[in-house]
Amino acid sequence: MPAQITEEILRRTISGTETVWMIQLAGSQKSVPLDPEAAEYYVDISDLRRTLVDRTTQQVNAMVDKVVAAALEAFPQPETASDVLLFPSQVDQSTTIVMPDGTRAKVKMS
Hints:
Layout: E1 3-13, E2 16-25, E3 31-33, H1 45-74, E4 94-98, E5 104-108
Antiparallel strand pairs: 1-2, 2-3, 4-5
Protein backbone atom coordinates (compact mmCIF):
# COMPACT_ATOMS: atom_id res chain seq x y z
CA MET A 1 0.00 0.00 0.00
CA PRO A 2 1.35 3.43 -0.81
CA ALA A 3 2.46 5.77 1.96
CA GLN A 4 4.14 9.14 2.17
CA ILE A 5 6.73 10.21 4.72
CA THR A 6 5.26 13.21 6.50
CA GLU A 7 7.86 13.76 9.20
CA GLU A 8 11.35 12.68 10.22
CA ILE A 9 12.01 12.79 13.95
CA LEU A 10 15.58 12.62 15.23
CA ARG A 11 15.79 11.70 18.93
CA ARG A 12 19.08 12.12 20.76
CA THR A 13 19.17 10.55 24.17
CA ILE A 14 21.83 9.46 26.58
CA SER A 15 21.70 5.97 25.06
CA GLY A 16 22.10 7.12 21.46
CA THR A 17 20.38 8.59 18.43
CA GLU A 18 17.17 7.23 16.93
CA THR A 19 15.39 8.30 13.76
CA VAL A 20 11.64 7.79 13.47
CA TRP A 21 9.71 8.38 10.26
CA MET A 22 6.05 9.28 10.42
CA ILE A 23 4.07 8.12 7.39
CA GLN A 24 0.61 8.81 6.05
CA LEU A 25 -1.09 5.87 4.34
CA ALA A 26 -3.04 6.50 1.14
CA GLY A 27 -6.63 7.42 1.97
CA SER A 28 -5.84 8.42 5.56
CA GLN A 29 -5.31 11.81 7.16
CA LYS A 30 -3.49 10.35 10.17
CA SER A 31 0.28 9.94 10.40
CA VAL A 32 1.69 6.85 12.11
CA PRO A 33 5.29 5.83 12.87
CA LEU A 34 6.96 3.55 10.34
CA ASP A 35 8.13 0.36 12.02
CA PRO A 36 10.86 -1.07 9.74
CA GLU A 37 10.82 -4.31 11.75
CA ALA A 38 7.09 -4.91 11.18
CA ALA A 39 6.77 -3.90 7.53
CA GLU A 40 8.72 -4.27 4.33
CA TYR A 41 8.91 -0.99 2.48
CA TYR A 42 10.33 0.22 -0.81
CA VAL A 43 11.40 3.68 -1.88
CA ASP A 44 12.06 2.72 -5.50
CA ILE A 45 9.19 1.29 -7.57
CA SER A 46 11.62 -0.78 -9.67
CA ASP A 47 12.82 -2.55 -6.49
CA LEU A 48 9.21 -3.30 -5.55
CA ARG A 49 8.45 -4.59 -9.04
CA ARG A 50 11.57 -6.79 -9.10
CA THR A 51 10.76 -8.26 -5.67
CA LEU A 52 7.14 -9.05 -6.60
CA VAL A 53 8.14 -10.58 -9.96
CA ASP A 54 10.82 -12.70 -8.27
CA ARG A 55 8.38 -13.98 -5.64
CA THR A 56 5.73 -14.71 -8.25
CA THR A 57 8.28 -16.53 -10.43
CA GLN A 58 9.34 -18.66 -7.45
CA GLN A 59 5.71 -19.61 -6.77
CA VAL A 60 5.03 -20.44 -10.43
CA ASN A 61 8.19 -22.56 -10.58
CA ALA A 62 7.11 -24.40 -7.43
CA MET A 63 3.67 -25.11 -8.95
CA VAL A 64 5.21 -26.39 -12.20
CA ASP A 65 7.67 -28.57 -10.26
CA LYS A 66 4.72 -30.10 -8.34
CA VAL A 67 2.87 -30.87 -11.57
CA VAL A 68 5.94 -32.43 -13.16
CA ALA A 69 6.65 -34.50 -10.03
CA ALA A 70 3.02 -35.70 -9.94
CA ALA A 71 3.18 -36.58 -13.64
CA LEU A 72 6.40 -38.55 -13.25
CA GLU A 73 4.99 -40.35 -10.21
CA ALA A 74 1.75 -41.23 -12.00
CA PHE A 75 3.48 -42.12 -15.27
CA PRO A 76 7.01 -43.30 -14.37
CA GLN A 77 7.76 -44.77 -17.81
CA PRO A 78 8.25 -41.67 -20.01
CA GLU A 79 11.82 -40.88 -20.90
CA THR A 80 11.38 -37.19 -20.12
CA ALA A 81 8.78 -35.06 -18.42
CA SER A 82 7.97 -33.53 -21.82
CA ASP A 83 6.53 -36.91 -22.93
CA VAL A 84 3.61 -36.36 -20.52
CA LEU A 85 0.71 -34.07 -21.44
CA LEU A 86 -0.05 -31.59 -18.69
CA PHE A 87 -3.50 -30.05 -18.39
CA PRO A 88 -3.35 -26.90 -16.26
CA SER A 89 -7.16 -26.69 -16.05
CA GLN A 90 -7.11 -29.85 -13.93
CA VAL A 91 -4.56 -28.43 -11.51
CA ASP A 92 -5.24 -25.97 -8.68
CA GLN A 93 -4.17 -22.73 -10.32
CA SER A 94 -3.97 -20.58 -7.23
CA THR A 95 -1.52 -20.46 -4.40
CA THR A 96 -0.97 -18.43 -1.28
CA ILE A 97 2.26 -16.50 -0.82
CA VAL A 98 3.39 -15.54 2.65
CA MET A 99 5.04 -12.14 2.54
CA PRO A 100 7.97 -11.35 4.89
CA ASP A 101 5.68 -9.35 7.19
CA GLY A 102 3.37 -12.36 7.59
CA THR A 103 0.67 -11.06 5.27
CA ARG A 104 -0.80 -13.74 3.02
CA ALA A 105 -1.47 -12.97 -0.65
CA LYS A 106 -3.40 -15.32 -2.93
CA VAL A 107 -1.99 -15.62 -6.44
CA LYS A 108 -4.36 -16.95 -9.09
CA MET A 109 -3.11 -18.03 -12.50
CA SER A 110 -5.47 -17.60 -15.43
